[in-house]
């Protein structure tokens, strides 16, 4: 393996993750916005409002994290980790909602599983891909 190819591969992986985050965020804002403000509520069925509101607002953070990842900013790793943790927490709250007999759509389980796994993966990639010596100039970005 040529010298530096690991770094190059990580940069490519971060760029791909950034693209996924931005596209995922834009799609999340559009779909959540359609349910909340457009004509999508009827098609959404028995949606859970706190899940839709969380996902709608999180979509903007997805885009922000994606931009940070594209620019190789360390704060993007912390944001990705926060998104993974918050998504898992909302998923757990959704689970409680279901456990007490709340109405829901089965596709919400699949969607929240996907969101949680995607953000856990992006957070792990960002955490390891953006690490650098503490106190370096780029540590402040």
Please give the count of helices: 5
**Portion of residues in helices?**
over 70%
Estimate nothing, just give the exact number of structural domains.
1
String of helices and strands: HHHHH
Biggest β-sheet strands, sense, barrel: none
Computed structural class: mainly alpha
* Cα Rg: 17 Å
Stretches where pLDDT is under 50 for at least 5 consecutive residues are none
Keywords:
single chain, 141 residues, mainly alpha, 5 helices, 77% helix, 0% strand
Task: Describe the overall structure.
With 141 residues, the protein is mostly helical. It has one domain. 77% of the residues lie in helices and 0% in strands. The protein starts with a helix and ends in a 12-residue tail after the last helix.
Write a brief structural summary.
77% of the residues lie in helices and 0% in strands. It is mainly alpha-helical.
